[in-house]
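Now for a sample.
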Amino acid sequence: MGGITKRYDILLAIALFLVAIPAQHYEWFALLEDQTLSFRHQMRLAYGDPKTQAIAPEVVVVNVDEPFFKAYKSFPLRRTDIAALVSNLKELGAKVIAVDMLMDFPSSYNEDPTLAKALKDAGNTILVAQGEFRDGKFVKINYPTEMLDQASASAYTNIQSNSKLVTTLSRLKVYPELTPVRSGWPFAVRAAAMYLGVEPKLDGTTLVLGDLRVPLDHQNLLYIDFPSLPTGTRFLSQSAGISALEFLDISGLNENERAELEFWVKDKIVVLGDTSEVSHDWFDTPVGMVYGVEIIADSVSSILKGAPLKAVKPMTAAVAALLVLMLTVVLALAVTRPMFRFLGALLIGVGFSALSTMLYVKAGLVVPTFYIMMSLVMSYLLIEFRQYMVERNQKQQIAKTFGQYIPPELVAEMNKSGQQVQVGGESREMTVLFSDVRGFTTISEGLAPQELTVLMNAFLSPMTHVIHDYRGTIDKYMGDAIMAFWGAPLHDPDHARHAIQAAMKMVTTMDDLKEQFIARGWKPIKVGIGLNTGVMNVGNMGSDFRMAYTVLGDAVNLGSRIESLTKQYGVNLMISEYTQAAVPGLISRELDMVRVKGKDTPVRLYEPIGFEGEVDAETMARLSKLHTGLGLYRAQKWADAEAIISELAADEPDRMIYKVYLDRIAHFREEPPAVNWDGVYTHKEK
């Protein structure tokens, strides 16, 4: 028990599920619950029993619609014609005539006496009144005009949205406190009671109509069972309705025509209403937009069928919520892998949704779904949040423990992959950089130890920033030297390009620092940088007592040799042919083809100039001329090579590479190379 009390995520999950009980009881999120209800009802219409979902055969809609008014050639319907409809429906055998047309103002044409007489003579009519509610509280009932109210029974319509944000009608509410009031029963309830010849009563949360007992939910709400419609029909009035035009005048009907109309209305509840577009009497429901008169007909049908949709009792919902809670907590405690934890929560959520949908479709049971699903999702997120915080703390601990002596990039990869620090490595194609300060010994001799430390920090800090900015990893600092690499610990397909960009930026950064160094009384620093690309072994290497994340291999050694040769060619930056080949679009000056000390395989060396589009035409022409001269030099055409290189040296007298080749040509004229000379220069020093 002590362990559970320390798990704030589990305690909050329990609290969420407990809060879900009053939340669904008082319908705090009615709009969202209605969305799940709409989905379930669509499933019911698609996969439920069509016979039980059809509208009750005792209910029929007689409507005035667009075709009616087109033939009627007037708007609105005159009350004398409403009187004719009532009289004719009574004559054809309608058992109850429910008129869904609000008439709370006297007729401008003095038609009320005619309609009142028709209503009184029929004796089986009910007029619609209007229930006025504010914030769910009853205010008053707006009755029909006094003359009509005395001639007919009336009842109010009160179907209201469960949400204050969106008007969605799905349930009919019975207000116990209004039942003693005149016309205090909902219109659909009064119509059904008149049809059954009884007085409606409330027995707790059960609507009693004689022998018919209709269960309501804990708030005395009846779920309206919107019926399935035949294929190709959108509205109930198209399948369970008939135009009022058929009943305006039945005096000239023959026996067959009269019998056909009697078939529609005899011994039925006839709901007379307006389904024309101009009336705007339509509302959003779980099955889409439905006309008001059709909602009344569906409500009457739901009552007569004994409420096919029944809400589960609140305690049942609470038990279901707690069961899901128990499964969620067990899942959280038993499963450690995030993916399995997610799949488990998903399985519970999908399973519960499927169960609630199946109960709705097959048994007509309305289980609160959104509240439990929300609690499940929030509980899962809480548990995942705690796991995230635990892992974050672990990562911070790793960073604190190892970050002092291994690169931050390695710490990040360890945190991401969860791998442990072990001796060993892997082979990757990478690019390595070596950088060294020219004449560092001379510089250090003129400075006090403390000032030398300040100088080195002023040099190493910006160089490190540049390397990190271009995704490089610092391997080590070796006095004034820097070793770095690209392509590990994180894979980088553009490692060579990033290394080139970093090296070129390091050179320009040192030029920018020149004035700062002079202002502080220091000599300007020049660096030599060498790069090589190849397969290297990278990883945590060392002993059981100390490890370092570093790179090893021939490609690394070649990078170090290349850096040491930069001063012999008078350049700040030099790369191997392998790095050159790995960076498409890189413009470089070929410097030499050499064998470095300890290597038999020759390698071409280049000085990067820039990228395509960044190098001016004059420089490109000089590069082309130099490369031509080098070709002549390797072909031992000394005079032609000397002429080209001398011309370049005249244009750029400070570039050392021209002097290097002019000296070699002079030497080879006096001492020609071997017959099988391949044009490669062999360096005897590192």
